[in-house]
Fold this sequence. Notes:
about 300 residues, mainly alpha, Alpha-Beta Plaits
Amino acid sequence: xxxxxxxxxxxxxxxxxxxxxxxxxxxxxxxxxxxxxxxxxxxxxxxxxxxxxxxxxxxxxxxxxxxxxxxxxxxxxxxxxxxxxxxxxxxxxxxxxxxxxxxxxxxxxxxxxxxxxxxxxxxxxxxxxxxxxxxxxxxxxxxxxxxxxxxxxxxxxxxxxxxxxxxxxxxxxxxxxxxxxxxxxxxxxxxxxxxxxxxxxxxxxxxxxxxxxxxxxxxxxxxxxxxxxxxxxxxxxxxxxxxxxxxxxxxxxxxxxxxxxxxxxxxxxxxxxxxxxxxxxxxxxxxxxxxxxxxx
Length: 296
């Protein structure tokens, strides 16, 4: 993993930690003093973001290590493992919040939430959506699955704050007859957390199983390879993610009349070009095949 990529990911994770420390403290105080179960659940959600960002930091640190005798392919998949841990944690947390809210929904005592809880929920929506957009864009830029998962954690927090906003608003205008609105909002928060966790768990599982990447990244690599003099066609292309890194296995076709040395030199040029143009690329295996204009 190149140093610049690591530093970008590290900065994004630390930004999330700082923002969530501040938000979770404010939400806890507002939820307890403002008598809002939904806001307390939202505070727990924000607090869980801190843990997920810490896990991301650990994953990035391990992934940065160089290959060794026991790990000749490097440690970059530690970043995907970190994403898996965060995803499982989200599902577990959502389940806890849901069942706790379900238990409290049948309690007869009622105390209306304070109106200032609405303003804090709105502020949380704006801040969390901003963090989501920043970290999602950064995660895609540096091919970091754990950072993208962490970004969706922020998006789920923004959505949960919307649920808090609606629930508290109904509880305020409806009075005792709407006392369950706040608890229902807390349950909605829990379901959003679980959904986000399951969605990202499926995505990171595919990466750990070396799912082949297609679409624009593959087309870009094909175009770069074809720009190398002597490459007639790209027969096969396999791209897989290993943490934040990309690993490529590409089969290029050349003139069958070329010598082994000439074919080898073309393969070297293809590898050098791809490594120079794609920042996140860690390894390239180039296979040389004979090119024939007519095929059986």
